[in-house]
Amino acid sequence: MKSSILSLLTLASYAAAVPLQGHQHHQHNKRNVVTKVVYVNGQGQTVTPSGDAEATSAAANAKSTQTTVATSSPSSSSSSSPSSGGSGGIEGDLSLFSDPSKEFEDGVYSCDSVPTGQGVIAVDWISGLNGGWTSIMNQNGDTSSNCKDGFYCSYACQAGMAKTQWPSEQPSSGISVGGLQCKNGKLYRSNTDSKYLCEWGAKTASFKSEISKDVAICKTDYPGSENMNIPTLLKAGGSAPAIVVDSATYFKWRGGKTSTQYYVNNAGVSVEDGCIWGTQGSGVGNWAPVVLGAGVTDGKTYLSLIPNPNNKDTPNYNIKIVGADGANVVGDCKYENGHYNGAGSDGCTVTVTSGSANFVFY
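Structure tokens predicted for SUN-domain-containing protein:
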């Protein structure tokens, strides 16, 4: 039965604000996630699967919750070594789909700052966090401003790449933690199965701009704080790779598959202003008007446009999912003039069975 299911779409709606514990300056009013899984057949129609079908799962937690629908793929050839300084800004140091070449060395780099390079980038605009990290958390859910002993220090990778580091043993409370582990002032991999800190996703989805302003596209830091602070800058008239992780090999929450989730700000909002945990009514971060989902399972790529229940306002662009030349794409999905072409307000999804597709902003 599973092979007959051509699309999985995880839709998140939020309720009941619950704060993360930790330092006051790094607390956020997180909202529990209610997950709705939608299956779509080859004609783009919603279907009801049999009980043996595998569903993409979302992390739910008493303190903080994540909905995710992702996939990733392995890596392995480039140039620079990790460093504590900037290396290529948020664009990173690797050319598109060029693999890292220098293995990360445990116990060498200080916990003070992110070891940039080999795909790792520093995110230095997050209020209350030092060293370019995207989140700093221990297994109890406590947070810190600085990466220190006993904490997992999460980091960002350049556009199209996903982090490889998270401990296999996750907190029983339901929160997720990810990143490098700080021990005796030095950084160590929490997932020693991977020699590198970043890996490319599948080459099956990209962002493409046909508009005159830049767009800040912000991936959630997962596993980790689940803040939408992993930046992709889609430049006006340009393109950028999307992270499409393989659900068979990427992070699993309590055994359930996960995928990538992006929050998309209005055009003209910078990554510094948009790739943050926003405040009510701000229209940025978790209050951005559009959410995108991407993932691969069983060799098929699922790309989604998802309504953000926090913000019903129409963005200052339209967006559609379009197959590249020669691609085989099942379904039709766009958000135009404030309306999705899917069922009601539930958003829409397509299945890329071969080739690749673009999220086109127009």
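Residues 201-361 form a domain with the Thaumatin fold (CATH 2.60.110.10).
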